[in-house]
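As noted in the main text, all predictions were made from sequence alone. Below is one such record, for RNase H type-1 domain-containing protein.
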Amino acid sequence: MPTKIYTDGSQTQICFKIEDQEPVVRLVKPDGEKATVNEAEYLAAVHALQEAKNQGIVEVEVWSDSELMVKQMTETPEGRA
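Prediction:
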């Protein structure tokens, strides 16, 4: 059964939560520079997947409120740009 990962991003912070673990919140960019919300959503997913890999988790299911990212990651026709 895949491990669920929840992600979210804003202009200044990203957040992810690996199932049954505490949430992780990080600045998008260490210098305080802002990112677009879409950039932050993807950064949250990348950081979460890197952390899952570091923990030896090999099967994941990513949950996000980013419609764009979900469509692009699931390869729906709407997500292909």
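Strands lie at 3-9, 13-18, 24-27, 60-64. The helical segments are 37-54, 67-73. These features were considered when defining construct boundaries for the mutagenesis experiments described in Section 2.9.
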